[in-house]
Amino acid sequence: MIDLTGQKFGRLTVIRKAHRKIDHHVAWVCQCVCGNKIETPTGSLRSGYTKSCGCLRRENSSKLRRVNLLGKRFGRLLVIEEEPSKVGDHIVFWKCQCDCGNIVLHSTNRLTSGNTKSCGCFKNDILKKLNDNNAKDGTMLNQITDTRKINKNNKSGIRGVSWCSSRSKWEAKITFKQKTIHLGRFDNKRDAINARKKAEEKYFHPILEKFR
After folding, report:
1. How far lies 14's CA from each of 10, 33, 38, 52, 176, in Å?
2. Which stretches of 42-168 are assigned E, i.e. beta strand?
3. Alpha helices in 107-188 (DSSP H)
4. C-alpha–C-alpha distance, residues 193 and 161, integer Å
5. Backbone torsion region of residue 184, taken as left when φ is above 0, otherwise alpha when ψ lies between -120 and 50, otherwise beta
6. pLDDT tens column, 103-130
7. Beta-carbon neighbour count of residue 159 at 10 Å?
8. Residue 131 exposed, middle or buried by CB count within 10 Å (0-12, 13-18, 19+)
9. Tens digits of per-residue pLDDT, 121-155?
């Protein structure tokens, strides 16, 4: 066994061998420069994995908190106040006021990475503009993102899938570029639903992906 007594590892000075082992490994009692004492195994000290009692990590985390975003603007968002974090000191949240008037909370990383530029109104404005201009060769985005309740007469529970009583079949269809595309008639409702889902992936998803 190598005697580490008196040796220094980062902020730690080895005082003596610990009375107990940690995970079946020899451990050492160490004094940190901050005054705290800890016990840690030989491997953690010699590999550099443990350099303090934990105060070094806390200090590095606190440096993140010193990034002051107060008064800074990110797209439509103006940072107006720091919000106490509920998930630890390593994540800082900021209260932001959007140009539209809404107040939202975002983390330092989300703001500085450029992933967030508004409360969500920016995306909505783009969708509205595209809809107003009859976007994508006549495909209205409010049609493919329609979240209204399905008609109570719809027995399938799925938009675009209905029961044809005259033929005793399930019918599937989809509207794209202001045209109704018939996807077929099916004996099984599940087959009709699958046909509708595949059509949505083919026609709708390429457009929606650009706004996610």
Report:
1. 11, 11, 10, 11, 73
2. 73-74, 77-83, 93-98, 103-107, 161-164
3. 108-112, 121-132, 135-138, 141-144
4. 6
5. left
6. 999 888 788 877 788 988 877 776 666 6
7. 17
8. middle
9. 877 776 666 665 554 455 555 555 555 556 656 76
Answer whether 169's CB lies under 8 Å from 177's CB.
no
Handedness of CA 148, 153, 154, 156 (dihedral sign): positive
Q: Which of 19, 86, 3, 10 is nearest to 51 (CA)?
A: 10
CA pair distance 129, 134, nearest whole angstrom: 9
Asked whether the beta carbons of 28 and 45 are under 8 A apart, the reply is yes
Report yes or no on whether pTM surpasses 0.70.
no
Residues 193, 156 contacting (CB under 8 angstroms): yes
Tokens of 117: 């530029």
Alpha-carbon distance of 71 to 64, in angstroms, equals: 17
Mapped onto helix, strand or coil, the DSSP state of residue 194 is helix
- Measure the CA angle with vertex 127, ends 198 and 99; round to 5°: 145
Sign of the dihedral through C-alpha 117, 120, 122, 123: positive
Closest CA to 100 of 130, 83, 128, 120: 120
What are the pLDDT digits (tens) for 78-94?
999 988 765 445 567 88
User: Is the distance from CB of 94 to CB of 69 less than 8 angstroms?
Assistant: yes
Within a 10 A sphere around the Cβ of 45, how many other Cβ atoms? Answer: 21
